[in-house]
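ugh ok fine here u go
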Amino acid sequence: MTFDGFPDEGLVFYEGLEADNSKAYWTAHRTAYEAHVRAPMTALVEALAQEFGTAKVFRPYRDVRFSHDKTPYKNHQGAVVNPEGRGAGAWYVQISADGLTVAGGCWRLESDQVARYRRAVAEPLQGTRLAEEVSRLRAAGWRMEGERLVRVPAGYSAEDPRTDLLKHKTLHAARHWAPEGWLHTPEALERVRDAWRDLRSLNAWFADNVGATTKEPRRR
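structure:
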């Protein structure tokens, strides 16, 4: 399937889902989701696969087992690429009624990965590399986000020039575009491709300095 853009009908579908997040709405509009949301998202990531790797297109259902919010369906469609063999650093894309979001970096790190991340941040060469990359991304319009501590973690100095980065337990960059005409055209593919290319250095830093966890997989 060729990617021709995200149809406006897909955004309309999510507007309706936000107003009525119920099984009845989902059942009545599932064909719209399949045709105007999931199909174009699948076509998008397939077009990017040769350069970035195979993506996982997320299921539309929320895991409500441990959440106070029991609404059954996600109000967005996301997909992620975790490059095989690199361990840390991923690319993400998401469509919703609010428009298109792209992101990259790390959203969840195990304790051994967090420890390696902090050691690399505190090391002059690698820490400076990450700080410079974060500054470059911010200057280019990216938001730097992630879970972080209030204080500098134990074992590290509050005088370290990269205390802000040391406080992070996860770190990722994101940017968002509100719905405009280009979203419904193949230009959306080029925007995602260019954005993901801009995240290569950040993901490479995570792959080189953090890598895969050595912990046992979490039981679900």
